[in-house]
Design brief:
Blueprint (H helix, E strand, L loop, with lengths): L10 H20 L7 E6 L7 H12 E2 L14 E2 L1 E6 L4 H9 L5 E5 H9 L13 E17 L15 E2 L6 H12 L14 H10 L4 E6 L4 H8 L3 E3 L4 H10 L4 E5 L10 E13 L4 H11 L2 H11 L22 H9 L5
Parallel strand pairs: 1-4, 1-5, 2-3, 7-8
Antiparallel strand pairs: 5-11, 6-8, 6-9, 6-11, 10-11
Helix pairs in contact: 1-2, 2-10, 6-7, 9-11
């Protein structure tokens, strides 16, 4: 999506749209003749990120708890008897824990962390059976942001040495990515401070001068970065060359990418690395339900609904990229059946 397409509603506009969804749901609940036959939880992310509003919109699109929602009248049909809800969390690691423990039916997660969990090489979920993870779809790309104050003397990765760098909250994907980043950038044990702060908290400390830099793994535009960029308070450090190549080799399926110029006010194009955000379920979830959810996710009605209600901060989903970064963990049989029927896989 070009920068021009991103000019539009702010986060307040997105939240207003979600409030509108709640208002839409109220008369549906009043008219309900019977309770929904199935609740379906989506573990997402912090309220200030992109995971949560997207999960809320997808939940609204696939829900039809009364089983009487008329497709000819409503924006989307939904799945009869299903009430989906988005739940906030601290990020991908927390989501993996909740999904593998059976506390939620589905979760958003970085593709690299899902892969490592499925392979049993992610210490953060040790003791849990990651082989149970299954994918529904690739949703959108997430980019590594390396944020410094605009007046900072930090110009390169090497300049981060002896400065304070926030590494993300404990159960977030950012925190795991930060560990790999420090290794490839030769910054292990070379920082003055490495606090576990979410990007929102890190942005606050950067603004008031008590922090030199922070990392954020996020779709674009990220709220915490955007608010600083609008105040002309930051720069983004480029991540490229041998360090980026070592990173993508160590953390597949990351790939080298770029945050486009103009995404954050006047900031220029910035080389970095990126990976997909996946929608995951467990292998025990019924095939028919996952088929119905996948079909609803990629329906034309859902596409129109997300475009009308998401604003510029909620990424546009693209069915042509639905299978990107998927393989480990594999597709859920219900999702695979949909993609076969739609001709996306043989």
């Amino acid at each position: 999506m070009g920068a021009a397409e991103r000019q539009g509603p702010t986060r307040r506009g997105v939240l207003t749209g979600l409030a509108g969804l709640a208002a839409w749901a109220a008369p549906q609940a009043l008219a309900q003749e019977a309770p929904p036959s199935r609740f379906f939880r989506i573990a997402s992310g912090p309220s200030g990120g992109i995971y949560y509003p997207l999960a809320g919109l997808i939940a609204a699109a696939i829900s039809n708890p009364t089983s009487h929602r008329a497709c000819e009248v409503e924006a989307v049909c939904g799945i009869p008897g299903l009430l989906a809800v988005a739940q906030t969390s601290s990020g991908s690691i927390a989501n993996l824990h909740r999904l593998l423990k059976g506390d939620v039916e589905s979760a958003f997660c970085q593709a690299d962390l899902a892969r490592r969990a499925a392979q049993g090489t992610l210490p953060s979920v040790s003791g849990l059976d990651g082989s149970k993870l299954r994918a529904i779809a690739y949703l959108f790309p997430e980019y590594l942001h390396i944020v410094v104050h605009k007046d900072s003397s930090i110009r390169t990765l090497a300049d981060l040495a002896d400065h304070s760098l926030a590494l993300g909250s404990f159960e977030s994907g950012t925190r795991i990515v930060a560990e790999v980043f420090l290794k490839v950038a030769d910054l292990e044990d070379r920082l003055s401070k490495a606090p576990d702060l979410s990007p929102i908290d890190a942005a606050y400390h950067l603004r008031k001068g008590s922090l030199d830099a922070f990392l954020a793994m996020a779709g674009v535009p990220d709220d915490s970065v955007e608010s600083l960029a609008q105040d002309r308070a930051i720069r983004l450090l480029p991540f490229r060359g041998q360090a980026a190549a070592r990173f993508t080799e160590a953390q597949p399926p990351f790939e080298e990418a770029a945050i486009l110029g103009g995404i954050y006010d006047s900031l220029p194009v910035t080389p970095t690395v990126a990976v997909g955000a996946l929608w995951l379920v467990a292998d025990t979830l019924e095939e028919e339900l996952v088929y119905a959810i996948t079909e609803a996710l990629w329906s034309k009605d859902t596409e129109v609904f997300l475009k009308a209600n998401g604003g510029y901060r909620v990424p546009r989903l693209n069915a042509d990229r639905a299978l990107k970064d998927i393989g480990v963990p594999p597709l859920h049989p219900g999702a695979a059946r949909f993609y076969k029927k739609s001709g996306r896989i043989a």
